[in-house]
Amino acid sequence: MTERRPASTAAPGVATRIAAARVLDAVLHRHRSLRAELGPALSTLPDPRDRALAEAICLAVLRAPQRYAATLDAWMAKPLPQRDGLARALLIAGLAQLDPLGLPAHAAVAATVESMRAIGQAHRAGLTNALLRRAVREGVPAGDPRAHWPGWLRSHIEADWPIDADMIYAASAAPPPMWLRANRRRGTRDAYATRLTEAGVEFTLDDDLPDALRLAQAVPVATLPGFAEGDVSVQDASAQAVADVLMPRPRARVLDACAAPGGKTAHLLERDPTLSMTAIDVEPARLQQVDGTLQRLGLQARLVAGDAADIDTWWDGTPFDAVLLDAPCSATGIVRRQPDVVLHRRESDLAALLALQARLLDALWATLVPGGTFVYATCSILQDENARQVEAFLGRRPDARAEPLDARFGRESGVGRQVLPGERGRDGFFYARLRKAG
Ligand SMILES: C[S@@+](CC[C@H](N)C(=O)[O-])C[C@H]1O[C@@H](n2cnc3c(N)ncnc32)[C@H](O)[C@@H]1O
């Protein structure tokens, strides 16, 4: 029997659950991207703790959507009709609050039932209560982390990394650690470590990454000492390693060809503000984020909105000493952070990305001074986008040769180095460093 209490979004946690369910409905049922949906949804929640919870719910679901769908299929006599995507998303969000998030069962069940009423689905309050109570009693059936990946992508991964494939799937389904980058302009990493300790935030240091601190538990950025003042940034360890691969000399002219949202541009400038930096991105809205990042950190670069490969439109002909191509890619190394990328990716997207990467490599090589350094990096784990892409480029360019990188940058992979997701707590990443004949 359905109850007749009035629905209220003011009840504890209801607005949070509905915000999360709206995002999940859009991503799971309407092929929208998490990145596009999450920001606007979170901005409706004034309390940072509610925002953190809504985000955690969305990520927990999207790391294993098949697991929750299979649970609903097994436990419901009749699936919810297509038009009831929001109600379905609420149920799935309820299951994820129990496992893996481990919220107190009473709070998770009560808030989800109340949310169902608040979206005008009071007739499903009893069903919601029964399904979630069953999950509390029996546990949510375990999922298979491989099920998250489309078959064509699994074929690539299992061909490229036959021994590591299961580790890749498992690591991609697990929440990543939060990594910080201390801003050298504002003091040493040790000085920032002391401030974290004083604030009661637990962390470890990584010997291979001079600016990095790895938090024991993720925290809202607003609670980090000096975040608003630019004393620290959030950036995965693998992304931080790029500055050590490029290593430009003081006052070098540096090009960051695919720069948004600006993490690596900012890191390079924090290391050495004498660099003359040009940062390009094809998406003007994302380039604005580079601007925001640099302003928060008090850094300067020349920003260009445009297609980096179309060099006649933005290059004045003065060569760069160092070029960073952090290329658009399948993002298969960061599925734990952006789990929706594999839900929506099609094989034809990969072909388009491979062509774009080759076009960017060929065009940007012309902007590098003889003797200069070119770094190609991706957050992909597919060898077609990484070692094989660079090897094909070297075959086209007799004036390019790959330089060895050491084990700080991962395992050897053809002409570069590869980190697989989760290794040493890092995102999956590939690096190759090329030198132009002088
Ligand atoms: C991997 S992300 C870069 C991340 C960035 N380097 C950072 O550390 O914050 C790739 C970027 O390439 C941009 N992009 C894609 N095609 C491009 C092109 N033809 N020219 C310039 N930028 C492009 C995308 O908009 C995206 O922001």
From TrEMBL:
Catalytic activity from the UniProt record: cytidine(967) in 16S rRNA + S-adenosyl-L-methionine = 5-methylcytidine(967) in 16S rRNA + S-adenosyl-L-homocysteine + H(+)
Domain SAM-dependent MTase RsmB/NOP-type span(s) in chain numbering: 168-437
Superkingdom of origin organism: Bacteria
Record CDD domains: AdoMet_MTases
Range of residues in the leader sequence: none
Location(s), subcellular: Cytoplasm
Principal location class: cytoplasm
Binding site for S-adenosyl-L-methionine: C258, A259, A260, P261, G262, G263, K264, D281, D307, D326
Recorded GO MF terms: methyltransferase activity
Top-level enzyme category: transferase
Pfam name, any one: NusB
PROSITE patterns: NOL1_NOP2_SUN, SAM_MT_RSMB_NOP
Active site per database record: C379 (nucleophile)
InterPro entries per the UniProt record, alphabetical: MeTrfase_RsmB-F_NOP2_cat, MeTrfase_RsmB-F_NOP2_dom, NusB-like_sf, NusB_RsmB_TIM44, RCMT, rRNA_ssu_MeTfrase_B, RsmB-like_ferredoxin, RsmB/NOL1/NOP2-like_CS
One BP term from GO: methylation
Keyword set, alphabetical order: Cytoplasm, Methyltransferase, RNA-binding, rRNA processing, S-adenosyl-L-methionine, Transferase
Function statement: Specifically methylates the cytosine at position 967 (m5C967) of 16S rRNA.
PANTHER family: NOL1_NOP2_SUN FAMILY PROTEIN _ ANTITERMINATION NUSB DOMAIN-CONTAINING PROTEIN, NOP2 YEAST -RELATED NOL1/NOP2/FMU SUN DOMAIN-CONTAINING
Family per record: Belongs to the class I-like SAM-binding methyltransferase superfamily. RsmB/NOP family.
Classification via NCBIfam families: PRK10901.1, rsmB
Protein name according to UniProt: 16S rRNA (cytosine(967)-C(5))-methyltransferase
Species name: Cognatilysobacter xinjiangensis
